[in-house]
Amino acid sequence: GFDDSRKIDSFLGHDSLETQRHARRSNRNAAVTGVLVAGGAGFLGSHLCERLLRDNKEVLCVDNFFTGSRRNVDQLIGNPAFKLLNHDITTPLRVEAGEIYNLACPASPKHYQFDPVQTTKTNVLGAINVLDLARLLKVKVLQASTSEVYGDPHTHPQAEDYWGNVNPIGARSCYDEGKRCAETLFFDYIRQYDVPAKVVRIFNTYGPRMQPDDGRVVSNFIVQALCNQDITIYGDGGQTRSFCYVDDLIEALVRMMATPADIHGPVNIGNPVEITVRHLAELIIELTGSSSRLEFRPLPTDDPRQRQPDIAKARALLGWGPSIGLRDGLARTIAYFEDLLRSDEYGALR
Ligand code: NAD
Ligand code: UDP
């Protein structure tokens, strides 16, 4: 695992890393088993860190806390197998790891459009930095890509061989094109440097630890419903999404990482059950017993009209499929937000 004698919160130069690799070669028992999770203090990242610790892995969580928080990983701090490093992945990283997951990137439109240039840098420079590290260490690296690479799709549902319909100069482009360029880099490092790299394309995922104010549809609607405020539907609510519960998603990430080095993807991960935004609002009102009403607001630009993953590849390659239905997953997420909104920090439900 991570060598405690080393200061992971200071950056190790190439030489010291080489020295350590040499030391490791001469001691077979010292193989690095630690897992680096970039973006590990975010919504998905914190669930992944938890899962890896449950699987008896050592975890190095790397995050710049832009949208992530210490609160997300509070329960892990103090666990000797867990380390937290405040670092921005747009600058190179030299640490030991046996595997690397790259989840670092704000995921909600509100957050990734806050500083679009930084979003592109995080996607592109971040990908280069995790790939360079994986190349140096000769370890697997998995990229959390997104269904946004399909843009506003012309095929339905979306399979991995669809090339997408993305606006290169719009408000969402920093995220969409940034993620597309990251995929390009992943496949060029595979072809050019033989890096055992993997790409999964994640479709809308929800669950506990989404931020209450991140502007995403599930968190917005649940918070609005619990506070009996109007539910803000953008457009006519006829657009669709397919929502995957976080535990299902994490299971797929772990299975993808466990595939042999020559399996690269890309693989779609999501729950193919598709629902309109309006129906989602009605379902959340029902599950919360809320008195909220629907309020219609303008549709943001380039908002995809429909989205549903074709997960045949994930089923075949990973033996994976979602197991938690929308009602069940929403009930768990609502319970989380009820607790959160009652907590000292929010107090919104008291
Ligand atoms: P999130 O915003 O909660 O997590 C992202 C994490 O990355 C945060 O902790 C943030 O502080 C960190 N981060 C951002 N920029 C960084 C940088 N430059 N250096 C280091 N850390 C940085 O989002 P999430 O929902 O957990 O998404 C995680 C990953 O999964 C993202 O890459 C996202 O694009 C991808 N994804 C998520 C979804 C979804 O529905 N949640 C869908 C598709 C893809
Ligand atoms: N949306 C909405 N009301 C909200 C937040 C989002 O109607 O308060 C819509 C949004 O326009 C989009 C869908 O819900 O059509 C999903 O939005 P989200 O930002 O969660 O994810 P993404 O657009 O990235 O799939």
Automatic annotation (TrEMBL):
Q: Which GO terms describe its cellular component?
A: cytoplasm
Q: Which Pfam families match?
A: Epimerase (PF01370)
The segment(s) forming the NAD-dependent epimerase/dehydratase domain are 35-270
Required co-factors: NAD(+)
In Swiss-Prot or TrEMBL terms, this protein is called: NAD-dependent dehydratase
Membrane topology, record value = Single-pass type II membrane protein
InterPro entries in the record: Epimerase_deHydtase (IPR001509), NAD(P)-bd_dom_sf (IPR036291), UXS-like (IPR044516)
User: Keywords for this entry?
Assistant: Decarboxylase, Glycoprotein, Golgi apparatus, Lyase, Membrane, NAD, Signal-anchor, Transmembrane, Transmembrane helix
Q: Which GO terms describe its molecular function?
A: NAD+ binding; UDP-glucuronate decarboxylase activity
The processes (GO biological process) annotated in the record are: D-xylose metabolic process; UDP-D-xylose biosynthetic process
Signal peptide positions (record)? none
